[in-house]
Amino acid sequence: MVAHAQTTAFTYQGHLNTNGSPATGSFDFQFALRDAATLGNNIGSTQFVAGVSVSNGLFTVSLDFGAAAFDGSLRWLEIGVRPTGGGAYNLLVPRQQITSAPYAALALRASTYTGTIQTTNLAGTIPDTRLSTNVALLNTNVNFTGTVKGALFSGDGTGLTNVPGRIFEVIPTGANIQAFPNFGFLCTNDSTAVVVTLPASIRIGETVRVAGSGAGGWFIAQNAGQSILCGQLAQNVGLSWHTNGPLLAWRGIASSADGSALVAVVNGGQIYTSTNFGGTWTARDSARAWRAVASSASGVKLVAVVNGGQIYTSANSGVGWTARDANRNWTSVASSTDGNKLVATVNPGFVYTSTDSGASWTARDSSRNWSCTASSGNGSNLVATVQTGNIYTSANNGLTWTPRGSSMAWNSVASSGDGSSLVASVSSGQLFISSDYGMTWTVTGPSGLNLWTSVASSADGNRLAAVINSGGIFVSQDSGANWVARAVPSLAWQCIASSNDGSTLAAVATSNPIYVSSLSTTTVGVAGGLTGVRLSAVELEYIGNGRFIPVSFVGTIRPK
Questions:
Q1: How many helices (H) and strands (E) are present in the chain, helices listed first?
Q2: What CA–CA distance (Å, rounded) separates 395 from 400?
Q3: Using 50, 70 and 90 to split pLDDT, how confident is the model at 544?
Q4: For residue 118, what pLDDT band results from cuts at 50, 70 and 90?
Q5: Nearest-CA neighbor of 498 among 262, 239, 331?
Q6: Which domains does the chain have, with CATH numbers?
Q7: Between the chain's N and C termini, which has fewer beta carbons within 10 Å?
Q8: How many CB atoms lie within 10 A of CB 179?
């Protein structure tokens, strides 16, 4: 027998960008092997590779997680990077899926062998004549009798019957049915919604499909601990609101990317944080004349400004805060998605930018009555409004600014993730939108003049929201072409914030509780689920930890 020892190390080649351009220089990398595309568990030990030379964005490293890490299950690489010796690692998104074995260990040949052979790591071709007569060959037709378990079969199922996952083959005759993985269910009941309960046991990547042709529609029921991430299903955001938190002089509010982590500030009070979509709130720091607050995508890095005081930053979701810069009449603040690049405004004063999470600040442009600012996700494209003046935009991290629009009493502005779509409000005026990075502006919103106080935008710029002082909350789901008033009380609304997909909105008003409308996920457990009307359909994929995501859908679907 001839045998060759093989290693479990493999080579990973990647491409690194900084600020949208290929990186060049020396960087430290960390590589963690995960069992899911998001969240999930570590597999093996995290690999650290220091001083990697990156040229024009390209780099190559050697990694070794051991043979046990690759057991046939799906694997993803979570990559962190920093300049060599540069402090904390920045995680790159998305995680990179390992789509094939990084190394195939082969036993080259075996001429003769006696005794028991361990099959681990054996590879090669066995002649048909060497196989047992009990082994079915692919080039012959074989008839099976009795019960055949198909756990190890693969293929497209052509010619087979009663096999899940091929078509919408189950048509429930009753009002309740237990779903199985990789099955589709067509609900035809005209009088009652068919309840399809999700599988209690399902593997990551498996799906359940439900469609309704009957007038009764359908309802997808959940088991304990299950939920459906349904932000993209929400055709109508802001329909229902819940209130929590004390009745205080709320001034500003900000949201994490998924809407779960919220932070709000009180004028003459404290900072409050929530980690459960506004269900409960915790008081932080001290009572100050807080004016505005901003959040990173994760909700971990926060920044807040005090009118007549300093800037304060937090690197632990608001548990602890550090005073920054000097006492100024700060009016607003905005953050990049990673929380590293910040922009803040002073009235009267300058625009200030920071590239180190608020540790240091640099004055930009000229002294004006700056009222509000917003940032793209990468912090490169910035926009700021002047209380009685123009809108100003910057495409280089605030280094230079260009006046846009007309001279008005601008008081609020919001940006899409790439900075191309903007929405701004005028005090005692109207709403304006721009789809070309602020170069041109078009009036939008309800007719007439209103006391607009705040605007918010989803990451794609399609879903917008705005509030009126002593008025209501308005939303648009078509980039500002049409606006609809939501059923909320007429309050002294001060600020509104949005999650990245626009499914979660959070708004604050003076001397009232905090209002939150969230359709980003169904209620966890048996109390939650999805409702679909006739001619609606959805396919749900299981992603682990009790959570499902829609991979396709049509029609009107409502979360519960």
A1: 0, 41
A2: 8
A3: very high
A4: low
A5: 262
A6: 10-98 (2.60.40), 176-230+523-559 (2.60.120.640), 240-518 (2.130.10.10)
A7: N
A8: 22
